[in-house]
Amino acid sequence: MLHPTRLVTAEELERMPDDDCRYELVEGRLIRMSPVGGVHGAVTVRLLVMLSQHVQARDLGCVVTLP
């Protein structure tokens, strides 16, 4: 990535090459995020199912996920 003492803008972060890691931008500093695991995936699926059922039952649109 960039030199650790250099502050980064959101625009710079968007232009950085994908390195298969996720980052959080906090006050101009890049924070590497922990990879998600099995529990995270299970909770996400349960939440999406419940949300999707709610949305469909009320004809509110659709539920999608983004990477």
Q: What is the CA-atom radius of gyration, in angstroms?
A: 17 Å
User: Shape from CA axes?
Assistant: elongated
Question: What series of H and E elements makes up the topology?
Answer: HEEH
Please state roughly what percent of the residues sit in beta strands, choosing from under 5%, 5-15%, 15-25%, 25-35%, 35-45% or over 45%.
Answer: 5-15%
The strand order across the widest sheet is 1-2
Average of pLDDT: 89
Commentary on this structure:
- The model has no long low-confidence stretch (mean pLDDT 89).
- Strands 1-2 form a two-stranded antiparallel ribbon.
- It has 2 helices and 2 strands, in the order H-E-E-H.
- The two termini are 20 Å apart.
- It is of the alpha+beta class and 67 residues long.
- A hairpin with a 2-residue loop joins strand 1 and strand 2.
